[in-house]
Amino acid sequence: MILPLATPPPPVISDAGDTQLVLAALAGIAAVVLLIVLAKLHPFLALMLGSGVLGAVAFAAPIDVVTAFTTGFGTTMGSVGILIALGAMIGKLLADSGGSNTIVDAVIGRVGPRRLPWAMALIAAILGLPLFFEIGVVLLVPVVILVARRVEVPVMRVGIPALAGLSVLHGLVPPHPGPLTAIANLQADLGRTLIFGLIVAVPTLIICGPLLARVIERWVPVMAPAGAGGTPDTTDEEGRAPVAEGVTRRPGFGAALVSIVLPVLLMLVRAIADLVIDNPDDSTQKVFDFIGNPTVALLVAVLVAMFALGRGSGMSMRQTQDSLGSGLPLVASILLIVAAGGGFKEVLVECGVAHVISDAAEGSGLSILVLGWLVAVGVRLATGSATVATITASGIVTGAAASSSTNEVALLVLAIGCGSLFFSHVNDAGFWLVKEYFGLTVGQTIKSWSVMETAISVVGLVFVLLLNLVV
Prior knowledge:
Number of domains: 1
Radius of gyration: 22 Å
Low-confidence stretches: 1-8
Order of helices and strands: HHHHHHHHHHHHHHHHHHHH
């Protein structure tokens, strides 16, 4: 069960005034961007130094800044880091065994190049329903990269629809942590929020996925980079990734698909059990909560892939283990950057930037839907976390929501979810995840990923306001 956070946390390591904290946040973010873009410093080091600048401007004690950074680093590595590592293992074995070639052949053969963006958006949306964004990225990116290589299209043409499918579901639809916590905070009706969320998600995904991809591929006209997303550096004359030593036969489509979908199914079963049973003390729900835990689900998928893909393709156990292990160096840099992004975010939160935004929102007199969206936008820009933005914003507007109708409260959850996705940038772990997996520069990531997230946020809010007129 997710415990709701009724009010935003107070400042912990800084006694600076509101204006000073805003300046500190801007200085820290600016330092990260300048160190990467102008000084060409590695993002891992830039995020560490940017955290120091943030703490110094906020008048926080240096040791407290270090403690906050290491806490955020460790928390992110312990949650997202494990998922990235396990997902990378599956992705590498999928490529080495020839399973990814099987999936790519099936996708291309059935939908054709023109409908690929729509197919990728649909696949990502289905997988994204019960799937955390980070898991979806590490499972889908190898397939996206190989599809882009095989069809020889810009990677953004198929990458943006896939990312949009994952992101829209992550921000708007339960059972993701953000929407569930907002539902609990605001005492919204879960079924109504789920239905409204799907109604808003479908047109938002169409506009910000396949349609927006046509524009972004002109702004970021890059082809699929060699070695990105855990895929091999080379392909054969037909655009297929080379298989590993010991492979004597290609895994079937079913075996390859199960290796990707199994963690999704386990988490979906958990989500359904939580909704149906809704009793944390029930022994059956405890079992489902365990097997549907993202870490456990991915670990089970790795074990299944060892036999379905490794042994199923003729590889020996040693060769299978070599393949799994070889996937980890490919994501080592990503792990450090994503974790450092978590550390930077923690320094922002511990300095009390979110609390400043909370105070500014009170008594604004805006429409409750717009107010919820704006508060979530502010927290998202400051902390980089969609989940933190959703939790904080829902806590701030709880009082105003008390006098709202059931439908309006459900729509408020969605408005906050849309705001939590606004303009992902350097303090968001997802920003670095997308940048590194797709082999982009910081500028290219802003012109693609950040623009897409902003479009989802704004377009989603528009549909929430339109839906508010008819329900």
